[in-house]
Design goal:
By secondary structure, the protein is α/β, with parallel strands linked by helices. The chain contains 8 helices and 9 strands. Strand 1, helix 2 and strand 2 form a beta-alpha-beta unit. The longest helix has 20 residues. It is elongated and about 145 Å long. It comes from Aspergillus cristatus (Chinese Fuzhuan brick tea-fermentation fungus). It catalyses: alpha-D-glucosamine 6-phosphate + H2O = beta-D-fructose 6-phosphate + NH4(+).
């Protein structure tokens, strides 16, 4: 994630007239990232002078000076330690007398800068991104949002584990606001994020798991540790590990894959093999020799009936019998009466 942020800013080469627009989160995981970015800035590896930031959410009714407000968090861990200009910092005002107008103005400011180039964020155990709780509309914009019990319980660790001290409402960018960014990077660490990661990656796009909306984004990236992948299928983990390895090889062996120019191969016409000539045999003309004639005997040509050639065993020998033997009588004359 750090490499992603630093590389994008350097590649963009921001200027005062063309700043790099960055969306930022808060929380325990981003705190580590901000500390490393501050060290990179102090080492001269990166500058935020021409960077415009938009934070994704803020509590409603919590004073800006409160140690747990996101204003205090950002200045404590990041803004006070880098060269970002104060006028380039945009954080929602949860104490505005007109919250709806504050949300609309926030959206207008994003549009005025040409949209967000890179949006960094985290994910909750129930799959929410920013404060877009389960059930949020996929087309939502910056608005007032009522926090769920699970979110209040999870954030109570920042308020002495007292849920009554946690604000029950917040201002948050919408899912569509995040989707409009040219690139989105989400951090998910720990086994308690495993179910959310499984629903967001392997499940269908579902407004009950708002992380799943990133399936429809053109350039999403989820940064996670091994514990957060416990609910994923083995083939899913291996698939993304292969992509990560390919990206690592590209960074160490050549330009990054997304910016590597594709050089078309020169067209080399293939020569077709010359077919070998095969001898053609012409059929010989049919000739009938009419000079050869078969001689037949006259006896063989004498017509007769087929019966004249057959010998009947039932009448054979009758011609040699005497006439006395052929006296006809009745069957009754041969029977001797007792």
């Amino acid at each position: 994630m750090l490499w992603q942020c630093q590389t994008r800013i350097k590649t963009f080469q921001p200027t005062p007239d063309r700043p790099f627009v960055l969306g930022l989160p808060t929380g325990s995981s981003p705190e580590i990232i901000y500390n490393i970015l501050v060290r990179r800035y102090r080492a001269g590896d990166i500058s935020f002078k021409n960077v415009v930031t938009f934070n994704m959410d803020e509590y409603v009714g919590l004073p800006r000076e409160h140690p747990e407000s996101y204003h205090s968090f950002m200045y404590k861990h990041f803004f006070s330690h880098v060269d970002i200009l104060p006028q380039n910092i945009n954080i929602l005002n949860g104490n505005s007398p007109d919250l709806a107008e504050e949300c609309a103005s926030f959206e207008d400011r994003i549009v005025s800068y040409g949209g967000i180039e890179l949006f960094l964020g985290g994910v909750g155990s129930d799959g929410h991104i920013a404060f877009n709780e389960p059930g949020s509309s996929m087309s939502s914009r910056t608005r007032v949002k009522t926090l769920t019990y699970d979110t209040i319980l999870a954030n109570s660790r920042f308020f002495d584990n007292d849920m009554s001290k946690v604000p029950h409402m917040a201002l948050t960018v919408g899912i569509q606001t995040i989707m409009d960014a040219r690139e989105v990077v989400i951090v998910a660490t720990g086994p308690h994020k495993a179910v959310a990661l499984e629903k967001g990656l392997e499940g269908p796009v579902n407004h009950m798991w708002t992380l799943s909306a990133l399936q429809l984004h053109r350039h999403p990236l989820i940064v996670c540790d091994r514990d957060a992948t416990l609910e994923l299928k083995v083939k899913t983990v291996r698939y993304f590990e292969g992509i990560e390895q390919a990206g690592t090889d590209a960074r160490t062996q050549g330009p990054w894959l997304a910016y590597r120019p594709k050089t078309p191969k020169a067209y080399v016409p293939q020569q077709q093999p010359t077919p070998k000539a095969t001898p053609t045999k012409m059929p010989q003309p049919l000739r009938i020799n009419t000079e050869l004639q078969r001689s037949f005997d006259d006896d063989e040509l004498t017509p007769d009936s087929m019966s004249s050639r057959m010998v009947d065993s039932a009448v054979s020998g009758l011609d040699s019998m005497l006439k006395d033997e052929l006296i006809f009588d009745r069957m009754g004359s041969r029977v001797t009466a007792n």
